[in-house]
Amino acid sequence: MLKGLKVYVFYLAVLSLFRLFFIGILQSYMEPASGTEDILLALWRGSRLSMQTAGCLALISFVPALLLHYLMPKLEWISWRALNGLLLMVLSILYVASFPFYRQFRMNFNQMIFNGANDDIYALFITMIQQYWLPVRLAGALLLAYVLWRLLMAWLKWTPVENFLRAVRWPLAVRLLGRLAFLAGVYVSVLLGIFGGSLGWQTAVDWENAGVTKDEFLNEAILDNPQAIYRAWNLNHRMLACNGLDFTVEDIRNLAASLSGRQPDSDDLDVYLQKTAGGAQMEQPSHVFVILSESFANWPLLDKYKNIPISQGMRALLAEEDTDYCPTFLPNGASTVSAVTGVVTGFADANLYLTTMPESFKEPYVTASAPQMEKLGYATNFWYAGPATWERIGAFTKAQGFDHFYSRGDFGDVPGSVWGCEDEYLYEHVLSGLSDESSFNVILNASNHSPYDVDVEAKGFDKEAVRATLPPEAQNDEELLRELGHYWYADRELAKFVKAVKEKYPDSLIVIVGDHGDRYNIDKTPSTYERYGIPFILTGKGVHKGTLLADSAGSQIDIMPTIFELIAPKGFSYMSVGASLTTVNRRGVNYGFWITRHAVGKADTVPLVPEPLNGGETPVIDDQAMQDYINAVRSISWWRPKYGPILDASKLEGRE
Predict the structure, then answer these.
(1) Average pLDDT in the 546-559 region?
(2) How far apart are CA 513 and CA 578, in angstroms?
(3) Which of 85, 168, 336, 511 is buried deepest, with most CB atoms within 10 A?
(4) Distance between CA atoms of 584 and 565, rounded to whole angstroms?
(5) DSSP line for 536-554
(6) Measured at the alpha carbon of residue 100, what is the angle toward residues 98 and 103, in degrees to the nearest 5?
(7) Exposed (0-12), middle (13-18) or buried (19+): which is 32, by Cβ within 10 Å?
């Protein structure tokens, strides 16, 4: 038992030191207003939470050793050595991996590690080698594990206290009191391990209530790596079980009715999704393009960054008379696959992994984009720079009604990374693949993606000119410069493609959005708006300044309704959860945030906490109306793809 307690104390010390060094090394991600008090609070809260982790880890080696102590004593020490060596190796690898993971996703381990299981494993492996120096990091992690293991073994063999207690002949009463005190200490340690630094569940610390500081980085640092993985597993389990949302049938009926402006008098959810176009605002284009541009964030287009020469292409496009722009737009989710499902199905991210659900492959959803564009006379094409097997994207898009799917395998031997061919070659094949037949094209590029290995300087990127415009603290960040170079490349190729389309098919309509933001910023602690926002750019014949509402805002589920209201004849019937930015839509919502033209905030707080987009006074919002909108979009996007159109409470029976 004493060995078990020593192992427990050792793991608690290691996890606490890991946290301290994590905060120290990545301190630039802290909010400027955070100080010593916040850091101490994070360290204290984290150590309490890590008591639970340390208890679990100690138990893994204690139980086998306890059994072997009585059954096969010669193997007991081998058990302590082997199991703790394995545990320390895993802990060290996770710790070393947590640094690049945080830099990429601004979170400790999250659901993205489970998304990776559905991703291209080979591409992930190559990215880890090329961008994250996997062999070097792994070697460092193993060395760290070996040092910790040797320290633990020395700690277990260090027994001066035990030797002293054995050497002295203590009176029986003292020995009994000592053993009672020891058992009481064990009991308290067990309680602290079970309840996360508390003696009961009422004050227990767990991953859901651990983040008590006002700093997002420190809140993530509070979670040790095993706790972060447990959080990711828990949330992923909820997603797979559809338990992340908790709406009754009555809730959904009322919310859907509120969203559609109808009476809640039907159990057929599709009744509330039905919309009628008000009439075309332009001559129907021959080709319609929706370009999902990898990691194409909105922040480089803001005025405060106009002197950084990485977005000249889009800035020039925004200045043209046939272009309109909404700067308050959100991605459907935190990853590319959410953008794909948002545009392809029309549903918001609602804790469902649509590309893996059997329901997604039976038939297209009524809100799916491709079948509805076919009703307007368009052939439907999906163009992807990467492999068809990524996230089952080829099978998924065809199951949702696209006539044709084109991917890396269709383009021949063209330059690119493990994630896909370079943007210029993708656009070249799109242009050469079009004909005079009217077509609807969704294009997903991949160049602006780790490992960021396009030779952008050879393509004309002036790194030194960009360096000179950066703040002094960022000028020596070569990794950031490489990332900005890839934004520059994506921007340039987008502008060239738009120009080529307009020359070849001048009556085309083009929509440009990022698939997500939240990959890199110049500021280590960007505002919510700068971190997550993506652009919504509309250009083509018939578009003009003012085509979009002056106070429009939205998310990727609003792309298709906007297109329908622009090009569909009056009376055209379509189905959507979202709404058009040309007629009514002044708010957007996604997996975690909401946005209007003046404010942004997290979607899961009660009440909602508005943040001004560009500083200044806190904007005022209609809290209840926004809460209802968030819940309506989420509940419909959860129920309809999972359970179908009919609101039937019996379908929820047996749900945990």
Answers:
(1) 98
(2) 16
(3) 336
(4) 11
(5) EEEEETT--TTSS-TT-BE
(6) 105
(7) exposed
Write the pLDDT tens digit of every residue in 147-188: 999 999 999 888 776 766 676 777 878 778 877 887 787 778
Q: Is the pLDDT of residue 357 over 90?
A: no
In the predicted model, is pLDDT for residue 89 greater than 60?
yes
Determine contact, residues 558/62, Cβ cutoff 8 Å.
no
Q: How does pLDDT run across 595-644, given as a tens digit for each residue?
A: 999 999 999 898 999 999 987 888 999 999 999 999 999 999 999 999 99
Q: How far is CA 214 from the centre of its chain?
A: 21
Bridge partners, residue 513, by sequence:
292, 536
Burial degree of 155 (CB within 10 A; 0-12, 13-18, 19+): middle
Structure tokens at 74: 């010669």
Confidence of residue 203 (pLDDT cuts 50, 70, 90): low
**Virtual torsion, Cα 424, 581, 341, 260, nearest 10 deg:** -170
As a whole number, mean pLDDT of residues 257-282 equals: 97
Flag whether pLDDT at 101 surpasses 90. Answer: no
Summarize the confidence of residues 107-114 as an average pLDDT: 79
Q: Count of alpha carbons within 13 Å of 98, Cβ hemisphere only?
A: 29
For residue 27, which amino acid is it?
A: Q
Q: Within 10 Å of residue 290's Cβ, how many Cβ atoms?
A: 23
Q: Is the dihedral of CA 491, 112, 600, 223 positive or negative?
A: negative
- How is residue 569 annotated by DSSP? P
In this prediction, residue 216 carries a pLDDT of 81
Alpha carbon distance 419, 125 (integer Å)? 11
CA 36 to chain CA centroid, Å, is 29
Nearest-angstrom CA–CA distance, 414 and 566 = 36
Contact 214, 208 (CB under 8 A): no
Task: Please state the φ and ψ torsions of residue 10, each to the nearest 5 degrees.
Answer: -65, -45
The 10 Å Cβ neighbour count of residue 106 is 21
Report the first-to-last Cα separation within the chain, whole angstroms: 38
What DSSP designation does 268 have? B
Q: Which two tokens stand for residue 257?
A: 């009715």
211-227 residue pLDDT tens: 667 788 898 999 999 99
Of 338, 344, 337, the closest CA to residue 401 belongs to: 344
Q: Mean pLDDT, the chain, as a whole number?
A: 91
Q: How many other C-beta atoms are found inside a 10 Å radius of the C-beta of residue 206?
A: 17
The CB density around residue 162, as the number of other CB atoms within 10 Å, is 10
Rounded CA-CA distance 109/106 in Å is: 9
Tokens linked to 466: 């960009």
3-state secondary structure 76-88: HHHHHHHHHHHHH
Burial 54-72 (b: 16+ CB within 10 A, else e): bbbbbbebbebbbebeeee
Question: With left for phi above 0 and alpha for psi between -120 and 50, is residue 365 left, alpha or beta?
Answer: beta
Half-sphere exposure of residue 151: CA atoms within 13 angstroms, side-chain side: 13
Burial pattern 478-508, b for ≥16 Cβ within 10 A else e, equals: eebbbbbbbbbbbbbbbbebbeebbeebeeb
Find, among 23, 24, 51, the residue nearest to 220 by Cα. Answer: 23
Measured CA to CA, the distance from residue 587 to residue 551 in angstroms comes to 9
